[in-house]
């Protein structure tokens, strides 16, 4: 029998029908993947099941009986726990205080002693392999550890079903394995898991059943064995997803590299990095959190203060101290967090795009609104941004379209080299391949890109060459055609010899091929 | 590990916590101030003056504890000083028209709670910002105080009432201090040892997380405004008892000193952080400066300047502390 059954659930927000009658069942004891592109309705569906949003129509059955989940409290009382994507927590409280937040949800003046609760919390933490003390402040924990706390919080409420909304999007690569262990432990305890994601490799690794949502409707539900990743991607997108075709970079002996970096260091985060990027090339920087890959990009773009080493762009030596210098030198930088670093969310598509080239859009220091509008219209068309007008606030765009706006604001500067820190983070399959297409078009014009990605398969398939980093140093260089995910994993986790000479050796070897 | 060792360990931990705590800096500042002023002003450290400082801060101190509760949820109550004035007027008018002291005080406090309730309802239901809501309420309440008195002071308050503000317990300890201390202890116990206290910090720390966890954060927030209303009213009633006359203009501008005290005491403007001990110390610092500047003949005109400087210093220190951690 199905533990949870959703029947014809409809939810309409002003201007958009988020759920158009979704039906699916979750078998008890299964790990049920819920996949779909951004905007397919996954988050809304979860919020309805968790009592955060009310449904307009349809039914939710719990163990075969119709129920009415009107608040997070109702959901919890049934036995449904939710681990949200950016799981909100109280970092000013201790680990145990966070774990028992749900249990102590009734507002009373009842006396509250933490001794015994801390004991229980410790047992729970150990059970899920977290060596932290219950009275430690949550702010001292890493994101991965906080997620374990969030799951303990659900388990502490004796839930039978845990819904996880893109649980791995917040995790660093090295935290993934322990996360999969944790899912296994939940299964051992007979807790059913609904796993929302659009990372298909993860889904195929842990899920036993899968439901695919597209555009507010369910298009497939069944056992994971019935489908292949390619089939799921097609069902999610509603059309065939094309494999990425790389451009062949120009890399002959007398080609001037677009970017040549020598002995580059950024405070204690990047040490003595030397690399070159050639016209038509996408260079992948592979590294875990703290590897220095992101810091290298920031350093190149003039966002770090303690920078040493030489930087040549198109053969000319450049002193880049500020982003303004970097833009002048022909660089563009797509930061890792578009909400915080990439966009002004309350401004429009046109305004966000215009910010990098305000000078050319103004006459005698007076901004030409008309020119900004035209620019907005142009990039909307060029990158097929789904926005009904150039003046629409980017706040209301989906993640993928927001990311396209970030790309747009750099493309309009006509950069020689684009630095992209995980440019497809949190965007859906369709938008992802569109972004890849934009990058391919860019390098096709003889420009170059340096990018990172938290997904190694993506990095391997998109980039021509991959440089691996570990603890701020380059540990290897690989042609993407001739490398496996495993080799790169070794190089970025420090499993190979990380001495400077070995790294250089690999690099020289690769150069020798030219 | 032996039991003694572990005990030594835990007491060491507790000691460390005291030194790392936000209150320690405030305490140090207070001590430095007291030492400095004891040199500058002759009578500063006399028993009489110490009690006079303590009594002088009790009224705002009680209100500050209410303000602290509101601020821990991330809110603010600008109407608290007007609330003090109106409740003082109310209790006086009631007594002058023949209502006995105890019910009159009770009614005034309930009225204060009512003001807090309206603040809280507007903020949690209509989701208006706390600053704009309580700024409006500040004016409305002050206006009511003027309207019902026609701007005239209420006099001839019964001595059984003024004893609440002017009386001495055992001939030494002024009554308002006892009220202040009692309120401080009760609030501390509530914060530290009740579910509500815990939810208060949770709501201030992350309202969304708490709401998603089933905590009725709107209710928790609402309650803090009601409590602030009650404590503001109590402070106002005691203040009028101390002065013996109820003027509608009384306590004007007190909200700034109260907010200053709470911030100096280490309560975070972003919510989630704040203690009774810190707030009491913050109130004392303001009281000591006010008293010391007058006694040292530097003059009352410098008080506002000193308070302002103090707020900025406290906020900068908290900010630096935040950056460090």
The helix/strand class of chain B is mainly alpha
Assign an overall shape of chain B: globular
Cross-sheet strand order for the largest sheet of chain B:
1-2
Beta strand % of chain A:
15-25%
Biggest interface goes to: A-B, 31 and 28 residues
Radius of gyration of chain A: 25 Å
Helix-strand category of chain A: alpha/beta
Estimate the mean pLDDT confidence of chain B: 90
| Count of the domains of chain A | 3
Strand and helix order of chain B: HHHHHHHEEHHHHHHH
Q: What is the number of E strands of chain A?
A: 22
Q: What Rg of chain B is obtained from the alpha carbons, in whole angstroms?
A: 20 Å
Oligomer: heterodimer
Total strands of chain B = 2
CATH arch. level architecture of the largest domain in chain A: 3-Layer(aba) Sandwich
The number of helical runs of chain B is: 14
How many helix segments of chain A?
18
Strand content of chain B: under 5%
Secondary structure: helix percent of chain B: over 70%
Contiguous runs where pLDDT drops below 50 for at least 5 residues of chain A:
498-514
CATH superfamily of the largest domain in chain A: P-loop containing nucleotide triphosphate hydrolases
Describe this structure in words.
The complex is a heterodimer of chains A (514) and B (325). Helices cover 33% and strands 25% of the residues of chain A. Chain A has 18 helices and 22 strands. In chain A, the strands form 5 sheets. In chain A, strands 6-7-8-3-9-10 form a 6-stranded mixed β-sheet, sandwiched between helices. A 6-stranded mixed β-sheet of chain A has the order 16-19-20-13-21-22, sandwiched between helices. In chain A, a hairpin with a 2-residue loop joins strand 17 and strand 18 (366-367). Chain A is globular. Chain B has a domain at 47-251. Chain B is 76% helix and 1% strand. Classes of the chains: A alpha/beta (514), B mainly alpha (325). Chains A and B meet through helix 2 of A and helix 9, helix 10 and helix 11 of B.
């Amino acid at each position: 029998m199905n533990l949870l059954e959703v029947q014809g659930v409809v939810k309409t927000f002003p201007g958009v029908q988020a759920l158009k009658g979704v039906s699916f069942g979750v078998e008890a004891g299964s790990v049920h993947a819920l996949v779909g592109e951004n905007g397919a309705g996954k988050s809304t569906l979860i919020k309805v099941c968790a009592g955060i949003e009310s449904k307009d129509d349809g039914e939710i059955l719990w163990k075969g009986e119709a129920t009415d989940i009107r608040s997070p409290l109702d959901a919890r009382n049934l036995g449904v726990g939710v681990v949200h994507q950016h799981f909100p927590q109280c970092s000013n409280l201790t680990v145990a205080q966070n774990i028992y937040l749900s249990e102590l949800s009734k507002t009373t003046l009842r006396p509250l002693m933490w001794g015994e609760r801390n004991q229980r919390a410790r047992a729970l933490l150990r059970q899920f392999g977290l060596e932290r003390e219950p009275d430690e402040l949550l702010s001292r924990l890493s994101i991965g550890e906080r997620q374990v706390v969030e799951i303990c919080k659900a388990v502490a409420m004796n839930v039978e079903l845990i819904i996880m909304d893109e649980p791995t999007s917040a995790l660093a690569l090295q935290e993934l394995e322990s996360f999969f262990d944790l899912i296994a432990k939940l299964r051992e305890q007979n807790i059913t898991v609904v796993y929302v994601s659009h990372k298909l490799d993860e889904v195929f690794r842990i899920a036993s059943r899968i439901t695919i949502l597209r555009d507010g409707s369910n298009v497939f539900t069944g056992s994971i064995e019935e489908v292949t990743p390619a089939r799921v991607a097609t069902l999610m997108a509603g059309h065939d997803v094309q494999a990425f075709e790389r451009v062949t970079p120009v890399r002959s002996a007398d080609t001037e590299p677009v970017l040549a970096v020598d002995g580059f260091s950024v405070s204690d985060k990047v040490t003595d990095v030397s690399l070159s990027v050639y016209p038509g090339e996408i260079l992948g920087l592979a590294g875990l959190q703290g590897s220095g890959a992101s810091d290298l990009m920031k350093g190149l773009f003039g966002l770090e203060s303690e920078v040493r080493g030489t930087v040549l762009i198109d053969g000319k030596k450049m002193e880049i101290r500020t982003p303004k210098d970097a833009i002048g030198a022909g660089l563009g930088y797509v930061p890792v967090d578009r909400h915080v670093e990439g966009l002004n969310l309350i401004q429009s598509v046109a305004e966000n795009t215009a910010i990098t080239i305000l000078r050319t859009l103004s006459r005698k220091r007076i901004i030409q609104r008309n020119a900004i509008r035209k620019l907005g219209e142009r990039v909307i068309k060029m990158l097929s941004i789904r926005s009904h007008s150039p003046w629409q606030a980017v706040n209301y765009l989906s993640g993928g379209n927001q990311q396209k706006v970030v790309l747009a604001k750099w493309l309009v500067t006509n950069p020689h080299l684009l630095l992209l820190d995980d440019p497809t983070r949190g965007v859906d399959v369709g938008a992802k391949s569109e972004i890849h297409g934009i990058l391919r078009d860019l390098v096709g014009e003889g420009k170059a890109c340096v990018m990172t990605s938290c997904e190694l398969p993506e990095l391997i398939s998109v980039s021509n060459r991959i440089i691996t980093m570990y603890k701020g140093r380059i540990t290897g260089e690989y042609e993407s055609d001739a490398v496996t995910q495993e080799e790169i994993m070794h190089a970025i986790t420090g499993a190979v010899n990380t001495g400077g000479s070995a790294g250089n050796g690999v690099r020289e070897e690769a150069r020798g091929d030219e | 590990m032996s039991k003694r060792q572990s005990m030594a360990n835990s007491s060491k931990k507790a000691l460390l916590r005291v030194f790392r705590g936000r209150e320690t800096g405030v305490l140090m500042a207070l001590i430095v101030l007291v030492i400095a002023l004891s040199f500058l002003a002759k009578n500063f450290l006399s028993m009489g003056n110490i009690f006079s400082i303590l009594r002088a801060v009790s009224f705002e101190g009680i209100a500050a504890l209410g303000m602290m509760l509101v601020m821990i949820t991330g809110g603010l109550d600008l109407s608290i000083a007007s609330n003090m004035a109106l409740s003082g007027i109310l209790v006086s008018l009631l007594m002058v028209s023949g209502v006995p002291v105890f019910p009159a005080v009770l009614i005034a406090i309930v009225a204060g709670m009512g003001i807090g309730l309206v603040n809280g309802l507007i903020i949690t239901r209509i989701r208006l910002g706390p600053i704009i809501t309580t700024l409006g309420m500040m004016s409305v309440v002050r206006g009511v105080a003027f309207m019902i008195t026609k701007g005239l002071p209420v006099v001839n308050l019964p001595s059984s009432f003024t004893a609440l503000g002017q009386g001495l317990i055992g001939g030494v300890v002024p009554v308002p201090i006892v009220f202040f201390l009692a309120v401080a202890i009760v609030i501390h116990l509530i914060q530290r040892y009740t579910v509500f206290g815990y939810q208060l910090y949770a709501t201030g720390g992350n309202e969304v997380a708490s709401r998603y966890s089933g905590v009725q954060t709107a209710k928790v927030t609402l309650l803090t405004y009601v409590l602030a209303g009650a404590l503001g009213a109590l402070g106002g009633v005691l203040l009028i008892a101390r002065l013996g006359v109820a003027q509608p203009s009384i306590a004007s501008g007190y909200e700034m000193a109260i907010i200053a005290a709470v911030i100096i005491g280490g309560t975070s403007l972003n919510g989630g952080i704040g203690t009774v001990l810190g707030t009491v110390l913050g109130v004392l610092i303001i009281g000591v400066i006010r008293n010391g500047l007058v006694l040292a003949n530097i003059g009352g005109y410098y008080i506002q300047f000193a308070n302002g400087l103090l707020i900025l210093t406290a906020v900068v220190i908290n900010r630096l502390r935040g950056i460090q951690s």
